[in-house]
Amino acid sequence: MSQLQQRIEQVIRADVRQMHAYVVQPSAGMVKLDAMENPFRLPPELQRALGERLGAVAINRYPGERLDVLREALARHAGMPDGHALVLGNGSDELISMLAMACRQPGATVLAPVPGFVMYEMSAQLQGMPFVGVPLQPDTFELDERAMLAAIEQHRPALVYIAYPNNPTGNLFDDAVIERIVQAAPGLVVIDEAYQPFSSRSYIDRLARHEHVLLMRTLSKFGLAGVRLGYMMGRRELIEEIDKVRPPYNVSVLNCEAALFALEHDDEFARQARILRDERQRLIEALQALPGVRPYPSEANMVLVKVPDARRTYEGMKARKVLVKHMGGGSPLLANCLRLTVGSPEENDVMIAALRDSL
């Protein structure tokens, strides 16, 4: 064993050494449809306007009052209820980490349905908190109400995450079941609406009913994945406590100004979302026509599909320069499943052809 390896074992936590880093697949030269990104760039005139605006930003100064302007703009955009406040994060990933940090106490547990967003479990592990994953119902990927309520009663979790729609399954859970879970939860419930631009429903009109519910969103799926900006809404007193663990200046002046610019031109991003919703339906119909392929219903900008041999199909698509997400190695509920991002019409045509040729 080298001296460096000995030092690593001395100073790096054993559980961290056993973890796997979040892996981003190389995508150079590929049709990239593995990460639920918006495929559309800004029109040239908006690109020029944004460039001029960012060029005028005082990057020699730490972020200041413009973040207050951004919080106000996001609150208006989301329709945040009175008596609520909003905290910003460097993507929703940072907000999830902040929640784990704020709620870590002896015996505190994080609970979420699985399969779900991997950062719920990873953030708990990094804070030394037990994570309880409650399997979704097979085939339908609906919440298992009885199992969820039993797990809540047994573990009394500090945090319960419910993705709405869920990643990677793309479905919206039953609202009546969600409400019963919210009422049973002894700690905080986080409704994660990362894919809200593509969904037919939002929890925002129910947020004011529950003082222990937080609503989390991101601008990544809105069309700003490269900007890295998430936000979370909740009762003002609760948000003020969570905000205490936020790193100072966690949102840069450039990210802030780019987000403000996007909100001022939200009609363009709404137009892009309409195209992607239409493309999602076209993609599902095309997948239904392929032998041996089963697409699942989706309210997000992705479609989960079951194929006869996911590894073979994934490798075949990759050889044809189309990159999607192979769901193997995760939940057994996702055996032989691929997750396809909804791309532009041209990208979707290429993806459908690659999938057909790779079966």
UniProtKB/TrEMBL annotation:
<protein>
    <recommendedName>
        <fullName>Histidinol-phosphate aminotransferase</fullName>
        <ecNumber>2.6.1.9</ecNumber>
    </recommendedName>
</protein>
<dbReference type="GO" id="GO:0004400">
    <property type="term" value="F:histidinol-phosphate transaminase activity"/>
</dbReference>
<keyword id="KW-0808">Transferase</keyword>
<dbReference type="InterPro" id="IPR015424">
    <property type="entry name" value="PyrdxlP-dep_Trfase"/>
</dbReference>
<keyword id="KW-0028">Amino-acid biosynthesis</keyword>
<comment type="pathway">
    <text>Amino-acid biosynthesis; L-histidine biosynthesis; L-histidine from 5-phospho-alpha-D-ribose 1-diphosphate: step 7/9.</text>
</comment>
<dbReference type="GO" id="GO:0000105">
    <property type="term" value="P:L-histidine biosynthetic process"/>
</dbReference>
<comment type="similarity">
    <text>Belongs to the class-II pyridoxal-phosphate-dependent aminotransferase family. Histidinol-phosphate aminotransferase subfamily.</text>
</comment>
<keyword id="KW-0032">Aminotransferase</keyword>
<dbReference type="GO" id="GO:0030170">
    <property type="term" value="F:pyridoxal phosphate binding"/>
</dbReference>
<dbReference type="InterPro" id="IPR004839">
    <property type="entry name" value="Aminotransferase_I/II_large"/>
</dbReference>
<keyword id="KW-0663">Pyridoxal phosphate</keyword>
<dbReference type="Pfam" id="PF00155">
    <property type="entry name" value="Aminotran_1_2"/>
</dbReference>
<feature type="domain" description="Aminotransferase class I/classII large">
    <location>
        <begin position="30"/>
        <end position="355"/>
    </location>
</feature>
<feature type="modified residue" description="N6-(pyridoxal phosphate)lysine">
    <location>
        <position position="221"/>
    </location>
</feature>
<dbReference type="InterPro" id="IPR015421">
    <property type="entry name" value="PyrdxlP-dep_Trfase_major"/>
</dbReference>
<keyword id="KW-0368">Histidine biosynthesis</keyword>
<dbReference type="InterPro" id="IPR005861">
    <property type="entry name" value="HisP_aminotrans"/>
</dbReference>
<dbReference type="InterPro" id="IPR015422">
    <property type="entry name" value="PyrdxlP-dep_Trfase_small"/>
</dbReference>
<comment type="subunit">
    <text>Homodimer.</text>
</comment>
